[in-house]
């Protein structure tokens, strides 16, 4: 029987996996990296390392930036150089102790030691500016936006350098949501002009320094961005919702990129979820896409669910299919 790591590589390389990859089983996420700084529990509020107020309201699936006159960090993109300061990555060695111990505890033959990054380039823009200001600025001040994107990219590269030095990851799990359930925030052409070049630098650096697999989380519609994802160096798009027509994406792009998702939290992650409903969705997803270039998974950006027990129930149904 292949290890979780071996089975993942067979799946995404078009080899001979002996079962479906079961959600996040192949990644050991190192979440103790000391470079993010934002509330991580419901009911909390605070500022992240960029000065953005982050609030996690009770009953919400995660933390969100707060905007308005007293909260928005950057109102005018043309003033970004005067307002935005580069966060420091110069942390003492002892701040890395927990991350290093976690990484060292992993059997790298069984799982990928996986670096994590939450809130990528596009999200950082609208965290700083608010969504409306950010989207308008792509049209009204494109050169200033490119400058700010490059500034954010330089921070990501510094983050990568420190993380690689301390935990030597085999994989990267990187968040950046690029759309709603039905459409992308940017056209494919605008995305390719503004966002893709930044990620080619970022993901290129990780891969040049020992990372074998890049997993990008975007739980949204982004089917029209897949060519850019391939160009950027993404190996697995995690979070691909059913609105993307995942089986068609597997047929069209399998071998160039793999897809992890097709089990929507919006449909399953609810107070009255049932084992029968979970089984139906898992069977549909697995039957439709097959084992190559596809990983059945909830689209949420981590091995968890809002309502207790659901994530484990999905894993159990995937196990049943694997045994059959």
TrEMBL record:
PANTHER family: METHYLCOBAMIDE:COM METHYLTRANSFERASE MTBA (PTHR47099:SF1). Residues 109-287 form the Uroporphyrinogen decarboxylase (URO-D) domain. GO terms for molecular function: uroporphyrinogen decarboxylase activity. SUPFAM superfamilies: UROD/MetE-like (SSF51726). This is Uroporphyrinogen decarboxylase. Signal peptide: none annotated. One of its GO terms (biological process) is porphyrin-containing compound biosynthetic process. It comes from Alkalibaculum bacchi.
